[in-house]
Amino acid sequence: MRKIILILSAMLLISLSGCGLLPNGFSLDASPEESSQPEEIYETSEQNESTAQIYYDGPTLPAIDFTGMDLFEDGYEIVAFDYAHDGDTAYFLVGGSTLKTRFLGVDTTEIKTDSGVPEDWAEQARDYTAYILETADEIILELDENSSTFDDYDRLLAWIWADGRLLNYMLAAEGFAEVKYLYDDYKYNDYLLDAEYAAQKSSLRLWGDDEPYFNPQEAAYTYQDEENDHIGSIAAARNMSLGTEVSLQGIITCTIGKSAFLQDETGGIYLYSNNKGYYALEAGNEITIEGKLSDYNDFLEVTDFDDSSIKILSENNTVSPQTIALKDIGESMEGKYVQLNDVTITYVDSVSGENGYSVFVSKDGAVGEIRVDKYLSPYPDSSIFVPGDIISVVGCIGQHYDAYQLMISGEDAIIH
Ligand SMILES: [Ca+2]
Ligand SMILES: [Ca+2]
After folding, report:
1. What is the pLDDT of residues 70-109, one digit of tens each?
2. Residues with Cβ within 5 Å of ion ligand 1?
3. Known catalytic residues?
4. Rounded Cα gap, residues 89 and 184, in angstroms
5. Distance between CA 390 and CA 346 in Å, rounded?
6. Sequence-separated (6 or more) residues with CB below 8 Å from residue 226
7. Superfamily of structural domain 322-415
8. Of the bound ligands, which one is closest to the alpha carbon of residue 85?
C-alpha cells in the first residue's frame, strides 16, 4: 500500500572521524579527538527531537503567507469549501463567487452514468474528497501557469491544497484517481505520475481492489499513520524470523559491488541485490527499503527487493565508522560500519583470477579477516596488501559460515 507520510526518525547527524580516506560517497571532517567515541556515531539534534516533524512525500506549498491573496492575480487564494460534486470536482467560494472547480491532472470515475449505476469507486472518491475538504482547516487553490484557467465547461482548473497537502496528489496516491489530461508541463505532473505508478503497483482501489469496506476517514488517516507504523528498526529486523517482510530506513554505508549495507541508529544489515544494479544503493543515500529477511551461510541479508521497493529520502549523508578492536568482531557487530586501526597484515589468501580473497590481520593477540568481494569494481589487486604492513581499514561486518569478515568497498577503504 502506498505510504504517504512518515514521521522522520530524528535526522542522523554524524560525529566525525579522524581518518582521511573513506569509501566513495563519504565526506567527513577531520576531528581526531572524537574518533574514539563510537557510541556517538549518531547524534540527534535538539531541534529535530523536539519537533518530530511530519514527512510528506507529495509536493508542498511555498512558505509564504497566503492571507489576502487573489487567485487570479496572485495564483493562490484561501477559499471556503462548498460541496463535492464528485471525486475530482468541487465547489469553492473564491472571492465572492462560488466556482465549480475541476482538479487538475486527475480523473475519478463517474457517479452519473447512462445506466444510472455509478462506476466503481466513483462514490467512494467523492466521499474521500468531501471528507478531506470538510475536515481541512485551510484550503488553498493554486492556478497553474501552463494550464488554461477554465476548461470548455467553464470549470475552474486548479490545484487543491488541504492543510498543506495536495488533494490532486492524494487522490492519485490513494488509487481513487487516474492521472489524466496532462495537456502541458503542469507544476506537479511528476508527483502525480509517481503516485499513480505506486498505486498501480500496489493494485490499490481503481487498480485492482474489489470495492472493499470503505471509510473515508480511515483512508485519510493512512496519510498520517501508515508508514510510521510500518518501518521498523534494523535491530528489530535482525531478531525476526527468516522470510519476514521488513521495511527499513537508514543510510547506505558500504557498497559491495551492487549490494550494500544499510545502517540506522540501532544497527546495520546487508542488502543483497543479487547482482542487479540499483541506483538507490549508493553510499551516503538515506533510503527506505522493503524486502525479505534471508540467510546466506549465517550472514543475514535483506533480499527480494526491486526499484519499486526502494525510495531515496536524501543523498550525501555522512556516517562515521565505529572504531572497534579485532576481538569485538562477532554477531553483535554484523552489518555495522566499522574501522580497525593499526592492524598488521599477516597473510593474504589470494587465488588467481577475480574470485575474491581474504586478508588476515592481527593486533594485540587477536586475529581478523578482511574480505575483498569478487564483485568489487574496481577490483583491488591483492598486491596492495603486503604482509607485515600496518594498516587501518574501514568496512562493514559480514559473515561466511564461522568467519566474521570486514567487507570492504574498495581500495579506498585501506588507510596505510
Ligand atoms: Ca471524472
Ligand atoms: Ca550472522
Report:
1. 999 999 999 999 999 999 999 999 998 999 999 999 999 9
2. 88, 107-108
3. 102, 110, 155
4. 20
5. 10
6. 1, 3, 4, 5
7. Nucleic acid-binding proteins (2.40.50.140)
8. 1
